[in-house]
Amino acid sequence: MLTVAPPDAVELRANATFEALMWSLSRPGDVRTLPEAGFGAIVETLVDLECAAYADTPEMRARIVASGAMLAEKVSAADHVFLSELDSADIAELNCGSALYPDDGATLVLACAHQGQRLRLTGPGINGSKDVTLAVSPGFWAMRDMLCIYPEGFDIFFVDGTSVIGIPRSTKVEVL
Amino acid sequence: MSLATLTKDWAATSYGFLDASAKRELRRKMLKAIAVPGCQMPYASREVPMARGWGTGGLQVTLTLVNPTSVVKVIDQGADDGVNAASIRRFISRVSGASETWDTLGASIVQSRHRIPEEMMREDQILVLQVPNPEPLRGVEPNISIARQMHADADYGKLWLTLYEQIVRKGRIMQGASYPSMVNGRHVMTPSPIPRWDVPKLNMARHLTFLSAGREKRLHAVPPYTRVEPLVFSDRPYLVEDHADLTCRRSGVQGFFMNELPQDGGGSVFEVSDSNLGIKALNKTEGAPTEIGETWYRNGEYSA
Questions:
Q1: Are residues B106 and B33 in the same domain?
Q2: Which residue, B96, B118, B124, B274, has fewest beta-carbon neighbours within 10 Å?
Q3: Each residue's pLDDT tens digit, B282-298
Q4: Which keywords accompany this UniProt record (chain B) (predicted)?
């Protein structure tokens, strides 16, 4: 028996988006489906006036401002970073939190085709190992290894249309 | 931008009780908790219509996850029909429209106080444990700032010392519930006050586990296929409770965690703690169609 108003479209979308993000991060390398293509639903699900977010396109910046979040001028000041393309200068600036506060590490949402370089993932959430393909250069993973000193680090969602792959900082990535 | 885009129409209630901003905060923290298994993440812990300490942490996680297609099971010390469990389950279903169940196999979300069901949980299931004290170091370091530094340094020597002192004083490890466990080889967590019997069920499990403490405003998580190793000395093996040979007086099942019922005039009888497993066993003996799932313990031995 439901005693409150039934969920509206926004609530259902946010719930489904979070479910996709949660399972993709729980099982790194698994492809999950977002209810809506692109970053819009992810902003709606995670970002609000308690956050500072960075984006590299004017549309996403407008979306972030509309969510009430503070628009970060620099990647280093943001806890949520939305990138339409990979720029190593941006990655080097990502906030990795601290050993005292690992939760300060940024969440990086990256538009990236789920094909190209073959990778082997191991770590929590993976039974043995899992192979994925992502259109990211090997240099990115070398940089991630340098920046993410577990438990410090950043967590990544690779979004390709409605598909999402999550790679948390706990995952070891081997470039094949 | 206009005011209309920044505001929403007034509504008397929010779906799932928690408002949208509370859910977003929990979602952000739940993702970080998954990313750093076993590490305690602070969160705001909103008011829910229940006193802190009665499962508000677990409830907030469940209310964030739940949608009208969810099937929710809530257990309290293994039982589905305890007042606390029944009230939480009814509350969740009333504010979300989710279905209620007692069956572990049929549930999509299992919220639990102090037990993990005996039937193995599947890949698509989520276990939400209610945690009274999320800080495994509290007993050895009451200052939370120093405890945080100790977690940052992976400085768990005092926990080992506690276990050592128990062996020296009593001849065995006396820690019954909340057995400190190393997650992913880095963070020691408390698995909530589940008995030692249940801790192996978290190691390389197929399901996702959230542990949330509403009063202490912290949550942590154990993703699937994550190492959870109870702290143990190499010459003192980890021992679960000695329940393998006990038989439930009502259902007749053997080799599961039991509740002890002391009798007048001495002696005890036992009843299986996972009450729904007992009910299923009873139904089976009466010939009703019942599916008992694969269990973590078989013939009293952990065998997953």
A1: yes
A2: B124
A3: 999 999 999 999 999 99
A4: 4Fe-4S, Iron, Iron-sulfur, Lyase, Metal-binding, S-adenosyl-L-methionine
